[in-house]
Amino acid sequence: MINPHPAAVRLGAVSYLNSKPLIEDLEDLLPEAEIILDYPSRLSDALAAGQLDVALIPSVEYFRGSGYRIISNACVAARGPVMSVKLYCRVHPGEIRRLAMDEGSRTSAALSRVILAERYGVFPEGEPLPIESSTLTSTADAVLLIGDRAMHEPIEEFVEVMDLGQMWYKWTGLPFVFAMWVAREGADITGIERTLDESRDRGVAALHRIADEQAPLLDLSRESATTYLTQNLNYHLASAERSGLELFRQLAQQQGLLQPEAVAIHSDADLAWRV
Fold it and tell me: How far, in Å, CA of 152 to CA of 89, rounded?
C-alpha cells in the first residue's frame, strides 16, 4: 500500500531478489525518504498517479509514461539468460492461442508478445495471472511468470520453457533492460541520482552476501542465488543496454503495445526530461 502522507521523497522499489543490489543501504543513504517495496506494476501505477516521486519501474512503462526521466544508470538488465522471466509453454510456441501473463510485470508481458509475434507469428489472446499464482492456476496454452517464483522448477511438464532474456539476446545480440529508476515530472529529486548510483555500487560489491542472505528465504540454493546475481544480471545502463531499450521500443510500437509518440532512446542525452 502507498502511504498517503508525503515524505521528503517517496521512492518505490521492487521486492524481488533481482533488485536487492539496487537498494543496498538505501534507507541509510536516504534517511528522510519514504521507501516502499512493491511489485513493478503497482509501482508504475503509483508513479503515474503522483503517489511516488521516484520508482524502479518496468522499462515499457517509461515509454508509456508522460514527463518521465531516467535518473540513474542503475538498472535491472540481462545479457543472456535471466532465470527469473520465463514463458512456460504447454504447446509449441507457434501454436499458442491463449497466454496468461503475470500481473506483477508489464515489460515481460510486452516482451513475450513481441517475441511470439516476431519470432513465431502468433498473436495470442491474453489473460491476467494473479500475483503469486503458479502455472497450475491457469489452463492457458502458455503462462508467463516473473520474479523469484520463476527461478524454481515447475511442478508440471511443459513442451518448452522459454527464458525470455536468453531468447531476446540470442535473437538481437543486445541486452534487455527489465527495469530502471524513473522520476515523474515536477518531483524534487535533488541528490537522488548519485545516491541511487551509490546504492547500486554498494549492492554490486555485496552480491555474494546478498545471495547468502536471500537464498534460504526464497528456498533457493546459495549457488543458484549467487549465479543469478553475479552472472545472469547486469546493473549498469550502458550504451548496449540503451540500444536494447531502443530496439524494444521499436518492436513494441510495431505490435501496437506503445503509442506512436513514444520517445526514442539514442544516447546519454536521453537521460533528460521527456516532453
Answer: 16
Whether 85-172 and 10-77+175-270 are alike in CATH topology: the answer is yes
pLDDT tens-digit readout, 244-275 = 999 999 999 999 999 875 666 754 444 433 32
Per-residue model confidence (pLDDT) at position 273: 30
First to last CA, the chain: 30
Range of weakest confidence among 78-82, 103-107, 202-206:
103-107
Tell me yes or no: is domain 85-172 CATH 3.40.50.2000.
no
Q: Alpha-carbon distance 67 to 91, whole Å?
A: 41
CATH T-level topology, domain 10-77+175-270: D-Maltodextrin-Binding Protein; domain 2 (3.40.190)
